[in-house]
Amino acid sequence: MDINNLLKICIKALLNNKTRCFLTMLGIIIGVAAVIAMLAIGNGSKQSIRAEIGQMGSNMIMVSPGNGQFGGVRQSGSSMQTLKLADYEAIVKQASYVDKITPTVQASGQAIKGSNNTPTTIYGVNDQYLDIRGYKIASGSCFTESDILHAAKVCVAGQTVVDELFPGQDPIGQTIRFNQIPMKIVGVLEAKGYNSMGMDQDDLLLAPYTTVQKRILAINYIQGITCSALSEEYTDQAIDEITRIIQTNHDIKIGQENDFNVRSQQEMMETMSSIMDMLTVLLAAVAGISLVVGGIGIMNIMYVSVTERTREIGLRMSIGAKGRQILLQFLIESIIISVAGGVIGVLLGVVAAKIISLFGMATAVSSFSIVLSFLVCVFTGIFFGWYPARKAANLNPIDALRYE
Questions:
Q1: What residues contact 279, with CB distance under 8 A and at least 6 apart?
Q2: Would you kindly state where each structural domain of the chain is located, as residue ranges?
Q3: Can you tell me the distance from the alpha carbon of 24 to that of 30, in angstroms, rounded to the nearest whole number?
């Protein structure tokens, strides 16, 4: 019997039990659709995060306090006070691969204007921070070097803060209170919206770092240094240069652990991509459980089919059909069910990914996920259909003809 006749027999047998066939496919359909949708969410989130980090410039470099020990106990970076203004000033004077640079300090608190108030974060920086992070002034102006020198109580507000404190009003020149410190608004930033991690990029205040350092936090150190290399190709040289300068400033000898960390935007991008890859695999693995359940459903239905068609199998064997032809027939039926379910599942998964993207979540359906789903469907059909098909092929023709 040729393969064409086998296909006709298989398709006819499946069409004779449409409802059962569809219910068997359902597990595969849901499994494939879930895998496609989950991989699309993972890939979309990764691409979105990479794009956002890239917008801030792949040549951005961040210096933060490092882990250290006090009394034999290791402290976290956030509790360290190892960075001073002297480190920032040394980089400004000595670094040749650094383009723009700012010290950074920050504090969270309540911004208040009259009866309106909103929780926000104030970042103490200089005017170069805007270029480094890609912010632009929408109205007003940024604070000046004189403001930084005199720790002036002025700030630039993000659009979210403006909307909360000054609905329908012009905030330029007006004074707000941040943790009881009066701050005059001299400028408003252009809106940037939410990033892919759900953080509002407009919920902030920018002020001279000296103001935040002295008037709000009352500290004599800085919490970080943010800078940009001359270009992306000079990022590694800039990192090495900054590391050497701060090591010299801190009198760190060769072999000693640094009390600071220097990281590039590219490093952050790779780290985030790695995390998103792990989450994508996890999501796909969870969704893949549905494929296993669907495969078990195929096996059960094929067992039932073999049992119901025992006399048919015996009759075919008695007129010359060989065991391998019986095996191939049921195996083809299993594969058809699995692949047909896979096709419907892929279409459903692509539609689901499109619908999810309408709700603001980034998705990206890749050809890899579609090819992978088809391969898994074929494997599922062969793997879970093999044992019932083999059972059918091993039936004794005489016993099969006598089966009631």
A1: 42, 45
A2: 3-52+271-402, 83-258
A3: 11
